[in-house]
Amino acid sequence: MRIWKRAAAMGKILYEKKEIILAVIVGIFFACMMLLSLTYKEKTGDIDRLYISGTFECGEITGNVEKKTYGKILSGHSDSLTVRGHFNRDIPYGSQIFLYLYGFRAAVLVNGEEIPVNENVVWPDNRIYMAGGRWQSIYSNGIRRDDEVEISITGLLSRGGKKNPGILLDNLYVGDRYSLFRLQLEKAALKVAGAFILLFMGLFLISGLILLKAIRIPVSNSYLASGGLLAAGGVCSLIDFKYITLICDNIFILDILTELSQLLILLFLLMSLRNYVKEEKRYDLISKLLYIWELLIIIYCPLRLFGIADTVIFSGVSLLAAFFLCLIAFSCLLAENKGQQGKRIKMVLHSGMILLLCILLEIINCCFTQQYWILLFEGGLFYYTVIQIYAIAGYTKERMEKARMADQLEKELVQSQISILLSQIQPHFIYNVLVVIKHLCDVDTSLAKETITEFALYLRGNMDSLGKKQNIPFEEEMKHVDVYLSLERKRFEDKIRVEKDIRVWDFLLPTLSIQPIVENSIRHGITKKEDGGTIRIATWENEEEIIVEISDDGVFNMDYQGPERRSHIGIDNVRKRIQVMCGGRVEVGMGEKEGTTVTIHLPKGDEENESYHSGR
Q1: Which of 260, 505, 516, 591 is least enclosed by beta carbons within 10 angstroms?
Q2: Please, what is the angle between helix 177-187 and helix 189-214, to 10°?
């Protein structure tokens, strides 16, 4: 038993700390993926690595070049760099040599003779400059290991800042295009797998939320933004120029997709997180950041498509803007987290801060290495996604539970309405009407027939109200009241007198709102006096509301506690329905010596009444 208790206690602790445990698991998983990616060893096959050893010259700077020092070569303040040396192997005649160019251009000379470039990529005119990398190939003219090879790199400082020439020297291959594509895809396999998972999860989340909206379950737009964030993140992670440019020659389209997906990532992230910020000033600040980023996207599209601004310059501006926007958003979430009490919202805020931190680290890494880790961003986005799905599942469960409870309450309300309506048709009233009809059959058969018709209309009016959930015209309600009064006057004759002062007709109110009040006035007020009394029904309006007043000069006492106390249920029911269905109120006033006045106030601001009034 002790073991089970300890296990249960441990399980409870783990459940309470599920957010930290999940963050640790995701962090370890993506750290392992990043480690595997960094320690990946290329397999030999139809494609081979090519290395050059010798010297380099960059302006006044010179030095030695070998495999281990590629990453340390700096271009300094010069726009060009020249590497002279020898390849590590013989390259047969006709073999393809691949060079990876990242924002610069290169030429290869062997023994002083330039080898023609075989460049098949779709490259736009000079007005638009691409930031992404691309593969350039040349055909060997029979290069030997002792041949003097010169690689001239230009454009290191143009358009957007200093480039890293080590990227080219570290990506020299000999072989065919398909083998190189397979090799690069194997190297990026973890990133590609993560990208497909994010893309699939994003599309699945969007589809699920659309389905929830289709079945009329309210869904916040922030959840749809989370789906868009996943889809944009998946597309951005999927586009790796090192393998995708080997199967897609249109660099222009790839560049546009990359930049647009990067812009949409931050847009959807801000839209998603804004919903969880409750403090007004911070909410307004994130809204302003969102508007700024939307403006940047609007400016980007025409400038980029029409070639007015090139990628490198625009990427620099957007990268700087993204850094500061993420920093400000992170600060807002950090401040918001301190004042939050709900565990679910805190989990979303924490995951949002982790994702923003991952994006900031990716931006910093890109500034120094001109490349993204991607796996760090994917890890943060994956963790944010899991928390979002958890939050959406909890939200959906709550909404469905509320819908179930609302359905149950509606059923109970229907049963309550049936009970109230049945209580209003009192057995003694039915008995008295039948006695009157029996008497009239002997005295006046035509009047008896009229009374039977009126009694049938009265019963039908009560039963019809069971199916009416919406408000009805005042005129329709008064027809039912007139039928009821006609029946009662046949029984009590001159003891019941009716006065009407109807100044307003075109408005709506809940069914059976006036008849129960009139019934109470007759039963507990007028008929208690020997000479009867008068019921007065009046309507009028002012600038703000429509007023319905039912008054009598009987002896009705609100503290009545007789055996027919259940009749008061009718008035209580009217008061509740007027409040819920019209936003109005019911007031009951007593005279000093006799009489009761019931006043119904119906606001003109009620949408249903306004549309009905305008329709008339």
Answers
A1: 505
A2: 70
